[in-house]
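Continuing the series of single-chain predictions for the mutant panel. This is the parent chain; the variants come on the following pages.
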Amino acid sequence: MTLIKWRIIMLIEQLKKVTLVAQELGLKQPTVTFHMKSMEEEWGMPLFEMKTGRILLTDAGRRLHRYALKMLALQEEAAREMRLRGGSRKRLSLLADAACSSIMASFAAFALEPAGYGIEWLRIEEGSGMHADIRIRERQETADADWLPLPDADLRLAVSREWAQAAGIQAAQAALESGKPWIAPAAGTRLRSQILTWAAARGLDLEEGHAVPDAVMAASLAAAGLGVAVVPIFSDPRFAQAATCVLPDPGRMLLLPLNGIPPYRLELKLGAGVPSEARLAISSWLQSPPE
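Parent structure:
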């Protein structure tokens, strides 16, 4: 399965017309039809069916659609990570032990760019946390002098704009009560704990459909209609700009307020080996007044 085939499955579910799918992809209609037949041959079962002038996914096609969304979300994440690395030969390693790693990686890339540095984005599972030049984590209960607090983020419920408009959803609680599965943060994160505490206080029983390690991936899946997700939104324009580079297109997603939930808080630590010009770039970026 190629990325173009995964995109065709996703777009058939959204648009239900081969001509519209072809236009969206910039392909000719026979090319899209060829890929559709090729997929059915590859999987050995019908994936598409014609009903009342529309092309719909069969049961097997809908099952494959779930994987298409995940594959495309991973592809988007890979593209973001490669962009964040930048063209600089000088790199600092970043470990963002938080549920919004992509946004924090984007922030670091913005802050370091004036000093001529790019980032090497490490993963928790790589076991490189102790060697990272820059570490970002969810803020701890006890203050630590070595860690710098970052601006707070409001938490919003991300839903597919198309689904919300069709369902008439205007409030976060109504969206969570609609039966759409919850795209949850990873177990053990403070973000997950905040969401569950908020939901329990309102008698909401969240049905977990997926668990993903990063809020941007969760937002991408929500924008594609796979469920609902809670994402941190920074009012500080510097962080908002960094988030804009990695979050899904606002035209695909609505962000509904979660009334009464505490802000999401993060903190940053610079390693002893961070060069002075890079240290100054990040410190200046954090201390500069928001525009």
